[in-house]
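As a warm-up, study this chain.
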Amino acid sequence: MRLLIVEDDHHLRSQLAGHFRALGWRVEEAADGREADYLAREYTFDLALVDLGLPQRSGMALVRDWRADGLTLPLLILTARSDWQDKVEGLEAGADDYVTKPFHLPELEARAHALLRRAAGRADDCATFGPLRIDFRGHSVSRDGQPVELTHSEFETLAYLAARAGEVVSRGELIDHLYDQDYDRDSNVIEVFVGRLRRKLDPDGSLKPIETVRGAGYRLAPGGER
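Now compare it with the structure written out below.
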């Protein structure tokens, strides 16, 4: 998963980034509203954690503007404010949930996973596509009950395609999802990951789980989700 953390407190931002990176997430950090706005519009994220009290531009303004301009990524606001009106204002501006500081990291992580499930239309952390079962939180995949060993990058590629099941996902989107913004962005790497996934998920060629849509990208469509 790719996460944007918008927090001006350096210590807290580093703590959050370290926690989610340890979970295998790709994390970008912004210390003010202007930098956050640039990153959110320039790159693809699965989730953003947004502090309300930011320099340059407030978190509330960011949430309003992103929603007004059609950015649909899940937004979890972080606020030190205890007044319920601030929380309501954030939700009405377009945020999906909030956590009040101070908070425990396991609580924040649980809220983040809940938002990702909601965004993907899932009621739990697993999804089944024909004989394939993907455990998003456990970072594991099985076919017909037998585990399929994937590298981290292979799993992240599959998980992103699964979250967009039935849609065509471009190579550019996958690169944005998998790599930090300053990474050498070579689309051939994506072709390698998809090729390896096909061989591991479908060694006998009977399933054909990942379709190539010529000139557009890839689509996960192994018989539909259950």
